[in-house]
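Quick one:
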Amino acid sequence: MTSPTPNDRKAILWGGLLGGAGDFFFAFFFYGWKIRVFQSVAAGLIGREAAFAGGVPTFLLGVFLHFVIGIIWAALFWALSRRAPGLIKYAIPAGLGYGLIIFYGMNSVVLPLSALQTKAWPLAWAPWPIAGHMLLVGLPIALVARKFSRPAS
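Output:
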């Protein structure tokens, strides 16, 4: 394996930050401007009771974890795109599909394995959160990966 290049690091960091920001704002607009929105992210690590009793510190922990998760998803897309260049060539459909994978991956694998222990299946039909993940998370990750896959001009 080769060492990561500056473009690798930029694609992963910016893809994760932009996808995370898209999801961050979607969550606040869809679920309301409540501190509990991101305390629930922290709850995946420290449990519901501790997260919701923790106030601003657990909100900040949730925001931090949210963006770390976004960066992990961007790193996974970047790694996959190195093996399947079609993900870069067709970044728009790939990103939309990847957003769908992120939504179902988080809800059927990550959350059930977290301290929240949510039900893995069947998932409730959630058209707006699914669309949000496709357009605001997966698509930015793929478009950033495409941008940093091109040689600098």
